[in-house]
Write the structure tokens for this entry.
Amino acid sequence: MLRPNENVTPEFFYLYLLASQENGVITQYEKHSASNIVNYGFEEFIGEQKITIPKETDLLAFTEKVKPLFTLINILGEQNSRLRAAVDILLPRLISGQIGV
């Protein structure tokens, strides 16, 4: 579990890590074992990578803009979980003929 310090918001840090993964920065810190397990050298990543932190006003303005998107992503994830649970309950009943279409 990663927790940013008070200098950055969780949203900013998450998006920074996501961008680092997408542009290949994170992959250089992955260590593959013989059994194909991938370990991540987080200490090396933090020690070598420098995060440019915007001014506090810019950071807060950015966070204010993206926070509703994270809220929506969370809500949609919860709804998808409920829908999956409903399918898991209803599909066997539909296939067995307990409920009709």
